[in-house]
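quick q for whoever's on today - can somebody do inverse folding on this one?? i tried earlier but teh output was garbage lol. tokens:
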């Protein structure tokens, strides 16, 4: 009887050692810049993967991680995609996931995503000059951009790196707009390449059904799109989140106004060597 108990105790210890050893092999990559590393660690903490030291907030680093058995690997944000195959998991900024998808790099759908209170305030918007807020051309653009077709495209295309925030999608059209009167007109909209210009290709198809042309002017930076709307060089833009637009208006006194909130680009956890969260006991 004593021998059986001894054997059982030894087996229990071996099982515990094996479990700790397995857990110690879990590596999670995070961006090494202050703001994004803190966001990444908070995402992990919010989901019970790690515990952070009391008071760790906007400047949290791996030094604040109290959990044993999980190795936090700090790396430059843009390199995490390339390092992902060598890591169990990584928390990656959406723009780098989008770049990888554009380059044909396969990446699994996000396993965890930031809480809504983190990413919703940064939702990306379509904006027009204040004089055009109530114009039928604007209403037609908004109806197309907040359509079920666009929502489905976002869900099916971006592996969770882009999330639609449209709660009540349209069929693509506004019943109160006289589309016959708009036939033959052109909307020029400034946009950055991914995902904005890509999403607008779906909007373009919807508007074309009503003989409205959507001219997508692709900008590589982030400083010209609002002045272009202010100056009337383009009708609308789609490239920024609301805080960025708020800062522009505050600093310049510009008359650029949000007319639709389309999507958000949250920070998310992606699997590398792991396809799901089971290695973390989730």
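ok took a stab at it. sequence:
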């Amino acid at each position: 009887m004593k021998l059986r108990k001894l054997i059982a105790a030894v087996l229990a210890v071996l099982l515990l050692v094996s479990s700790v050893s397995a857990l110690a092999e879990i590596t999670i990559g995070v961006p090494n810049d202050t703001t994004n590393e803190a966001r990444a660690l908070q995402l992990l903490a919010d989901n019970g993967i790690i515990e952070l030291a009391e008071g760790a907030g906007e400047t949290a680093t791996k030094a604040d991680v109290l959990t044993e058995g999980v190795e936090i690997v700090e790396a430059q944000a843009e390199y995490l995609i390339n390092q992902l195959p060598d890591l169990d998991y990584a928390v990656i900024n959406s723009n780098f996931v989008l770049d990888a998808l554009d380059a044909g790099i396969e990446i699994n759908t996000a396993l965890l995503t930031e809480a809504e209170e983190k990413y919703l305030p940064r939702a990306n918007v379509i904006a027009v000059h204040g004089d055009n807020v109530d114009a039928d051309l604007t209403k037609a653009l908004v109806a197309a951009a907040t359509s079920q077709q666009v929502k489905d495209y976002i869900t099916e295309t971006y592996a969770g790196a882009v999330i639609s925030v449209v709660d009540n999608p349209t069929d693509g059209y506004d019943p109160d707009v006289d589309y016959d009167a708009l036939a033959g007109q052109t909307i020029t909209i400034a946009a950055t390449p991914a995902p904005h210009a890509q999403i607008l290709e779906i909007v373009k198809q919807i508007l074309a059904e009503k003989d409205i042309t959507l001219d997508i002017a692709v900008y590589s930076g982030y400083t010209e799109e609002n002045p272009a709307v202010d100056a009337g060089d383009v009708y609308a833009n789609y490239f920024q989140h609301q805080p960025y637009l708020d800062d522009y208006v505050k600093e310049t006194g510009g008359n650029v106004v949000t007319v639709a909130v389309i999507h958000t680009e949250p920070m998310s956890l992606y699997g590398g060597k792991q396809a799901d969260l089971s290695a973390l006991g989730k």
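fwiw The chain has eleven helices and eleven strands. also Residues 5-23 have pLDDT under 50 and may be disordered. so keep that in mind when u check it
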